[in-house]
Amino acid sequence: MLFAPELLMLIGSLVLFCLCLGQGKENLAKYAALVLAIASCILSLATLQMNGSLFFDAYRIDMFSQLFKLAISTGLVVVLLFSGELKGVDDRLRPEYFLFMILSTLGLMMMVSSVELLTLFIALELSSYSLYLMVPMRDDHGGMKMQMEAAIKYILFGVVATGTMLYGMSFIFGMTGTTYFSELVPKMHGLAATPTAMLAIALFMSGFFYKLAVFPFHFWVPDVYQGASNATTAFIASIPKLGAVAILIRITTMVAPTGGEAVVNMLMILAVCSMFYGNLSALVQKDIKRMLGFSGISHAGFVLLGLLTLKDTGYATSMYYIAGYVVMNLACFLVICKVSKNGENVSIDDMSGLYKRAPLLALTLLVGMMALAGIPPFVGFMGKFMLLTGALSDGHLALVILAALNTAIAIYYYLSVVRVAFCSPPEERPDVHVDLLTRCVSIALIVVIIFMGVAPKQLLAVAETAVRNINIF
Amino acid sequence: MDFLIMNEGFPLLSTIVFLPLAGALVLLFLPGENVQRIWTMAVTSVTAAISLPLYSRFDLTTAKYQFGEHVSWIPSLNINYTLGIDGISLLLVLLTTLILPLCVLGSWTYIKTRIKEFMICLLIMETAMLGVFMALDFVLFYILWEAMLIPMYLLIGVWGGPRKIYASIKFFLYTLAGSVMLLVAIIALYLKTGTFSIPMMMGQDYTSTFQIWVFLAFFLAFAIKVPMFPFHTWLPAAHVEAPTAGSVILASILLKMGTYGFLRFCLPITPLATLSLGPYVLWLSIVAILYGGFTALAQSDMKKLIAYSSVGHMGFVTLGIFFLNKQGLEGAILQMINHGVTTGALFLCVGMMYERTHSRELADHSGIAQNVPIFVSFLTVFSLSSLAFPATNSFVGEFLILAGAFSVNKIIAGAAIPGAILAAAYMMRLLQHVLFRGPGRPDLADLNVREIVTLAPLLVFVFWIGLAPEPFLNVMHTSVDYLIQQVNVAKTAQIAMNIVP
């Protein structure tokens, strides 16, 4: 029962594999994937309070891991709901597409439960390679083979990042003599001030900075976001980031509270660079997915603000923030997937007059963009506010001022999307068809964004309880 | 919680704040344009009606926050949902609730497309504005302060004039850029005091450097909102391009939020900084008065003229605030209400003419006195009020401010006088064009009953406040005395700092 969500996903992926072998099974594959996602969501919820160890203590089920699994599977459900028809992906490839999406989610779920270095590596590779294969699965209408370029960039950067991470892991093994988190965390605390430890932790984190899109491991983001199909980008932009934050929290607990200034400084510099780089680059973007990619880089910088406090409240706030980010991002990608006629890329100008063409989508876009910008009363504001409070209570005044400045810079590009959606005439643009399911999902996302922003108390309490117990074995 | 007199029984303040929001949610499902207009009118009128007991049941003898409500919101950060009003905010709340129905009436035929969304924006704005004036917790205040930006942006950007996109973005970016430093200051104050509760942050012993930085952060946000020179450049664009209801809300209420911010935050929380940086703010206010006056004198667009006159009038308000004496403060608060009434009325008038002629130029409205006598009578009275003619409301406000000025610094008072003369000059110029000069326009229809009903309450208030201001000044006395007391606490500290080398 402890392993239930993953077991379900594993069996489900085998079922999908069988569906791939035949022909004409696209719809069946879609429904199978959706059912799997919903079922794993329910199972994660059911196992939320459970505790246990599996696979010779290499795999741990606790509230922290189950919470992330719940978030990952819920995100998957939402992505499948609004992008299920997979515009832009060839019909014959669709069963394989769903198979890889499920496998990638399985990998992420296993990753958040791994408490041993090699298990973590295997899970990471499972999720990453599935994604590498999903990116080039796109119809080549433009003839530019954009998705091929994106796929090559993704895999090359990913492999290098994984290599760096392995190098860091090797140092940790060398220093502590063990690959189990339960043993190496206390040993790393003891070795805190040594240069080897700092180097090891920095290298280890780099693999997950890559997944979270932190500067300077972000170079894949704009091209992959633009080159992949809309559904793939929706998945890449949200779900893997949850896994990355979970592991970054685990790694950050390895940093001793007293000797870890070097790592904290590194996180600070990366946070500031990510925020500025992401925001300044996003200002000039014309393709909306590219813009959201750069905005993701700046939001990753914000997440690091919570990590560098080295406190449980900071980690809980980072969890709250990334969960909120996933919801806001999915709201924006829902609109992109629906506005795109045949799966082609949507530029910002393509959103013109959206409030006349599809008012509910325009409202979803407004809420999503303004929430990402950090306008009250949405979850983006509450998350940013709590991160800034945490950072300032640790005494990082310059960091907080720079983060606040970044909020002001970021408003411009989020506002320009809202502007064309509401204030520009639609000209000759085609109508957008919105079915009932999409309407329900949009309204649900809007309600969640507002609710998480206005009533964060419960979520923060749950997150903090979960984080408090991760190093108690 | 000794600063708060808790409300027994029915939560009046929460109802007043959230009733418009509830009305907006119901409005989502209402079909039919007239139904939507009538529903919004009903919701705003009911909100206005239930806010009247705030005045009648207000205790004049205490400076504590009345009708208080307190609910724990995010205990881990000590953020609470606290509402309360005192003498300073009471009149502003009443101004907001009474102006909104008039805005809805004024937009009855002005807005022709997407009426439901327009009314929803108005109602959400009303909730945010009322909440800002009543909030006693800094996070609640900040959330509602920023929450207004989206509806206002949509009001200008969707239903505005030819340059609406430029104006709406300028408004949004400018205001937001000012507010981010406010957020940092709020967090800094929380870390010093351990609470986000505004009254608990007052009267604390912060160091003078800390106070100056916090004051500057607050000042940036509020000076952009007021707007003070040189942060005023968003105002003419936003006012001119906004639809009538948008301009009225912007002028009557949003600008007051900046000066309210000075009164509620800068003065009591950072009194040392207020005393040391106050003289600079006074001179900035003088610049605003004179600059606003001269620029208004050169305008040919009526809305822009009134917009620049707002800069001048708000200069008088900030002048009164930073004199830090009873007459100055009471004059400033009263002038806030007066400006809300008068400038709101002027924008409504210009809007009515715009509906008929589709132009805001003075040249297109020359000599229309002979065609639209009722309109011109209203316009004349409101113009006289704007220039602070005796017997109108602005006269009482400006008189109190100048009386307060002379007892503090005669030079600054003397520098403010030309501002009053300039106000007379540009208003008389407006009236001259409209009343006398030019051939008139026989095709213009005079005001219909709805428009007269929109303007009549404002006319009544112009004369009521002008001839019998005591009911309005009564509510302020205790709170203003308490505020002066809070600032004077720092005076002894300042003297001590100066004496001891």
What would you say this structure looks like, in words?
The complex is a heterodimer of chains A (473) and B (501). Chain A has 473 residues and is mainly alpha-helical. Chain A has one domain (4-468). Chain A has helices at 4-21, 26-46, 63-83, 94-113, 117-134, 146-176, 181-190, 195-212, 221-227, 230-252, 261-282, 288-307, 312-339, 354-357, 359-373, 379-393, 397-423, 436-454, 457-468, and strands spanning 52-54, 59-61. The radius of gyration of chain A is 21 Å and the shape is globular. The relative contact order of chain A is 0.10. The mean pLDDT of chain A is 89. Chain B has one domain (4-499). The longest helix of chain B is centred in the C-terminal third of the chain and has 32 residues, at 326-357. The interface between A and B is medium-sized, with 35 and 33 residues.
Short description:
By secondary structure, chain A is mainly α. Chain A contains 19 helices and two strands.
List the helices and strands and how they pair.
The complex is a heterodimer of chains A (473) and B (501).
Chain A: H1 4-21, H2 26-46, E1 52-54, E2 59-61, H3 63-83, H4 94-113, H5 117-134, H6 146-176, H7 181-190, H8 195-212, H9 221-227, H10 230-252, H11 261-282, H12 288-307, H13 312-339, H14 354-357, H15 359-373, H16 379-393, H17 397-423, H18 436-454, H19 457-468
Antiparallel strand pairs in A: 1-2
Chain B: E1 4-6, H1 12-27, H2 33-56, E2 65-74, E3 79-85, H3 87-106, H4 115-134, H5 138-147, H6 149-159, H7 164-193, H8 198-201, H9 208-225, H10 234-241, H11 244-269, H12 271-297, H13 302-323, H14 326-357, H15 373-386, H16 393-406, H17 410-436, H18 449-467, H19 470-474, H20 477-499
Parallel strand pairs in B: 1-2
Antiparallel strand pairs in B: 2-3
Helix pairs in contact in B: 1-2, 1-4, 2-3, 2-4, 3-4, 3-11, 3-14, 3-18, 4-5, 4-6, 4-11, 5-7, 6-7, 7-9, 7-10, 9-11, 9-12, 10-11, 10-13, 11-13, 11-14, 11-20, 12-13, 12-17, 12-20, 13-14, 13-16, 13-17, 14-15, 14-16, 14-18, 15-17, 15-18, 16-18
